[in-house]
Specification:
heterotrimer; A alpha/beta (219); B alpha+beta (467); C alpha+beta (256); A: 219 residues; alpha/beta; Rossmann fold; Arc Repressor Mutant, subunit A; five-stranded parallel sheet; four-stranded antiparallel sheet; 12 strands; 41% helix; C: 256 residues; alpha+beta; ten-stranded antiparallel sheet; 11 strands; 36% helix; transmembrane (chain B); histidine kinase (chain B)
């Protein structure tokens, strides 16, 4: 897998994106202006470019013209929210358009999507002997298909996105059931229990006391 | 109904009523005059006839009595040469007709009525198609009393009246028709400007302020027209102004939102990461650092914004005479880390009309900008002196300067010539906007002179004051 | 569209109204005509200022009517156009008849008159439609001078005026007396507003000539009564006169 190029003049945001993607296991490179980005694009190969529109030097619209012939998919990131801007971005050939401020989760999901659609990303998410085909939503354990409820599947994805990171209960619950759902984290425990059973991950999903859960993969 | 027909109708109705009344009155007085004339004439004629009959009878009587036959004979002979003119007369004796050449249609009754009415009376009677004036007078002859009843045909009077009236009627109708046409033409010609006005007002209502009614006439319609044009021009100006303001506001809001989103993205993103799961300490520290920094940035931004908003609401400042050197000292005091860079040259007695705090703020901002430009000599030069325009206050640096293309934009809110550098220095693009506002409240303007690579001078002219 | 229809309708209505308005006098005329046909009007034309007495007095009326009808101001027969006529035997008798009624008419007067008439050389006469007749006789006086004798009578034989040469002498009392009796004889006595009138001779009175002029006026009847004796000529008569015209004769109503 080739790295993902992040182009944004705000260092904080570039690093934020890098940190988010790193959890998924993606490697990233950063460029803080158009010229630097063009330089890097010439030198290296990338699986995806995350492009801010308002850049010093060449702006995003100019850069995408430069990138398109290479066939590398581009996702625009911008604070410009109007429909016109978004449409313009998409018309110019971007695969997707994310609006600031964004939730890292959303970013992850969109990146995954684009990578999958362009055939570059991991088609499969893997942990241990469990594979998840995001496109078909098939979950296989050791080649055998496992039936999961939508909630269980969602929970599984969150765990896979945050391998080896201890996830806080509240956040985990929120991510799966939504912010408005009644706060009864017991359902979380029940679902973890079910996942463990279905996937045989009693050891892989570790309970971290006073914190939450962690999907461990020692590879 | 439209105005033109209304006016024309009113004119016609008034004219018509006047004509009717006038015509009627004319006809009446004319008839009365003719009637009087006829009455006089006929009365005299009757008197003459009376004397003739009397003398005739007397002559006949001589000494003896007069026989009825003689009366009748005399009557007919009298009839021959007393011009009858379609009238006639009769001689009665004790209600007996002795002779009558009265028109048959009149009948005996009319004659008797006349006799009954007496010798001072005059009657008007109708017989068939004709009208007659009847008079009766007594005639004494040979001891007997006879009555002469004369009838005078006055049909002409009535016929003339009728004809005249008919003629008048036709004339009046024609006059009205003519007047109506003339009025219609005149009114519609005079109303033209109103139509133009209506068209123009409709255009204005539709948003087109360019039409003008341009009427030259001096009457009320012309005056209305001119006021209307003036009003349209004012509206046009106001609308342009408002559109301008709205545009600027939109630009401001969009720039502001944009400036807001960037720090928000960082704060939200990093805090989300922090709360989702355990991170390694290095990353954690980095995340918290970023959150804090962006939050600070937001604080500065909102602070400057509040100040600007506060100033925007203020329309006027109360200016007081202030010793300039004191203001500069205030500024220096508020920037301890930059104080060594300051090179202040100001006559201590110089006094200006200003708001001390705001002016200090302005200078402070200018100084910060100058310092950020990284002047080659490491100094920020502040000078103040009298000119023919007033007191000129200058903040100059030999820093990197401002590109010409940016010069006209630098006082726009959120405008940053070099974003990355500005952000790194906690700039928000608001500083100069604030200074520009303060300058305007002092009744003046900031003047920028700059050359890339050489430096920048910012000048402000203030009114001199008296201590 | 509706507005146009409305306007058109309004105009039609207006024209209908106007046509009616213009024709409105017609019924009014009808109405006033009805009145004319039923009422009794007076013949009295202009207010001529005559009193009721004057109007009812036959003689006064005749005099007035002649004045109106003929429009001839017949003062003392000044403008009469007479025609030569045969001597009328009967005519003087009508005069005599009247004069006999007057007290003052003495036999001497009568004789004088008769003599003049008998000596008449030429007669002229005229009569009018109102019934008045006048005679002018050219006669000899004292076998030496031409004299004119004039008189006028109404159809009812009332004397309108007389003018004759006379040797009798008349004082002003005589003349006044004469006027009184004349008024009685003609019936003009009925009219009670006869006023004395101051008269001044309008002609030159030579020395030694007697000129006595007396006159009366009735404003109600508009009649002027005169009796003059000037240089052997006696003139007596009455004529219609407007009050304003008194001044022409040098006459003015005397103060009460």
């Amino acid at each position: 897998m080739k790295p993902i190029l992040i182009v944004d003049d705000e260092v904080a945001i570039a690093q934020l994106i890098a940190m988010t993607l790193a959890r998924m296991g993606y490697t990233c490179q950063m460029a803080f202006d158009g010229l630097k980005a063009a330089e890097l694009l010439e030198k290296n190969e990338y699986d995806l470019v995350l492009l801010d529109i308002m850049l010093p030097g060449a702006d995003g619209y100019e850069l995408i013209d430069f990138i398109r012939p290479t066939g590398i998919p581009v996702i625009f990131i911008s604070a410009k929210t109007t429909v016109a801007d978004r449409v313009k971005g998409l018309h110019l050939g971007a695969c997707d358009y994310i609006v600031k401020p964004f939730a890292p989760e959303e970013l992850l999901a969109r990146v995954e999507n684009v990578l999958r659609l362009s055939g570059r990303g991991q088609a499969l998410l893997q942990a241990g002997d469990v594979t998840v085909d995001v496109g078909t939503r098939q979950v296989k354990k050791a080649g055998q298909e496992v039936a999961l409820t939508p909630t269980e599947y969602h929970l599984l994805l969150v765990l896979l996105h945050n391998k080896n990171i201890a996830l806080y209960r509240d956040t985990l619950y929120e991510r799966v059931w939504g912010r408005d759902a009644e706060l009864d984290t017991r359902t979380l425990d029940i679902h973890i229990h079910r996942l463990r059973k279905k996937l045989g991950w009693q050891q892989m999903i570790r309970t971290i006391p006073r914190v939450g859960y962690r999907l461990e993969e020692t590879s | 109904m439209k105005l033109a027909p209304k006016l024309v109708l009113t004119i016609l109705l008034l004219l018509g009523v006047l004509l009717a009344a006038g015509g009627g009155w004319l006809t009446k007085t004319d008839f009365e005059r003719n009637f009087e004339q006829a009455r006089t004439q006929n009365t005299l004629a009757h008197r003459r006839d009376t004397y003739s009959l009397q003398n005739g009878l007397l002559a006949k009587a001589g000494s003896g009595e007069i026989t009825s036959q003689e009366v009748a004979d005399y009557g007919s002979s009298l009839g021959l040469y007393v011009g009858q003119e379609q009238g006639g007369f009769a001689v009665y004796q004790d209600e007996q007709v002795m002779y009558s050449s009265l028109p048959a249609a009149l009948g005996q009754e009319a004659a008797c009525q006349a006799i009954e009415a007496g010798e001072e009376a005059l009657l008007l009677r109708k017989a068939g198609q004709n009208s007659y004036m009847l008079m009766a007078s007594p005639v004494q002859a040979a001891g007997k009393q006879y009555w002469l009843v004369s009838a005078y045909d006055v049909t002409n009077l009535f016929r003339a009246r009728e004809e005249k009236f008919r003629e008048l009627f036709r004339l009046e109708l024609a006059a009205l028709a003519l007047a109506g046409t003339a009025a219609a033409l005149a009114v519609s010609w005079m109303i033209r400007p109103l139509k133009k006005l209506e068209k123009a007002s409709r255009a204005v209502a539709a948003g087109d302020y360019t039409l003008s009614t341009a009427t030259k006439s001096r009457d009320e319609v012309g005056a209305l027209s001119r006021s209307f044009d003036a009003m349209t021009a004012t509206v046009r100006d106001k609308v342009d102004q408002m559109e301008d303001t709205i545009l600027r506001q939109k630009q401001f809001v969009s720039a502001f939102t944009h400036e807001l989103k960037t720090p928000m993205t960082s704060i939200l993103g990093y805090s989300d990461l922090l709360r989702s799961g355990e991170m390694n300490p290095e990353d954690q520290r980095q995340a918290v650092q970023y959150i804090h920094r962006e939050a600070l940035r937001l604080e500065t931004l909102s602070g400057k914004l509040m100040q600007l908003m506060g100033l925007v609401e203020q329309e006027e400042l109360t200016l007081e005479p202030v010793r300039l050197v004191l203001v500069l000292r205030d500024t220096a005091a508020s920037l301890p880390e930059l104080a060594p860079m300051l090179d202040i040259r100001c006559d201590p007695s110089l006094t200006v009309m200003a708001d001390r705090d705001l002016l200090a703020d302005l200078v402070r901002n200018l100084v910060i900008n100058a310092a950020r430009a990284q002047p080659k000599d490491g100094r920020v030069h502040i000078t103040a002196g009298r000119t023919e325009e007033g007191v000129a206050l200058r903040v100059a640096d030999r820093g990197r300067g401002i590109p010409e293309a940016d010069l006209s934009h630098i006082t726009e809110p959120f405008y940053m010539v070099d974003k990355s550098r500005a952000r790194a220095q906690n700039g928000s693009g608001m500083g100069l906007a604030l200074c520009a506002r303060i300058a305007r409240l002092h009744g003046s303007e900031l003047r920028f002179t700059s050359r890339l690579g050489q430096g920048t001078v910012v000048e402000l002219i203030l009114r001199e004051g008296e201590e | 569209m509706k507005q146009n229809l409305f306007t058109a309708a309004a105009f039609l209505a207006a024209f209908a109204f106007l046509a009616l308005a213009l024709a409105a006098p017609l019924p009014l005329m009808e109405q006033s005509d009805q009145e004319l046909y039923t009422q009794v009007m007076t013949r009295q034309l202009a207010d001529d200022g005559r009193s009721a007495q004057a109007r009812s007095n036959e003689f006064a009326r005749q005099l007035y009517d002649r004045d109106q009808l003929l429009r001839v101001k017949n003062y003392a027969g000044a403008i009469l156009q007479t025609t030569t006529a045969e001597i009328e035997a009967a005519a003087p008798y009508r005069l005599y008849d009247f004069l006999q009624q007057l007290d003052f008419w003495s036999s001497e007067n009568q004789a004088e008159l008769e003599q003049q008439i008998s000596q008449a050389q030429r007669w002229e006469t005229i009569s009018d439609s109102v019934g008045f007749s006048a005679w002018r006789v050219y006669t000899m006086w004292e076998d030496a001078e031409w004299a004119e004798l004039e008189w006028e009578l109404s159809a009812q034989d009332r004397l309108v005026r007389l003018r004759m040469m006379t040797e009798q002498e008349y004082t002003w009392e005589d003349l006044e007396h004469m006027m009184d009796e004349y008024l009685a004889a003609t019936g003009l006595e009925e009219i009670d507003d006869w006023q004395a009138v101051d008269v001044a001779p309008q002609f030159y009175v030579a020395e030694g000539i007697t000129a006595t002029l007396r006159a009366r006026y009735s404003p109600g009847a508009k009649l002027y009564l005169y009796a003059n004796y000037v240089d052997g000529v006696l003139a007596l008569g009455v004529c219609p006169l407007e009050q304003e015209e008194l001044a022409q004769f040098g006459a003015s109503l005397m103060e009460e």
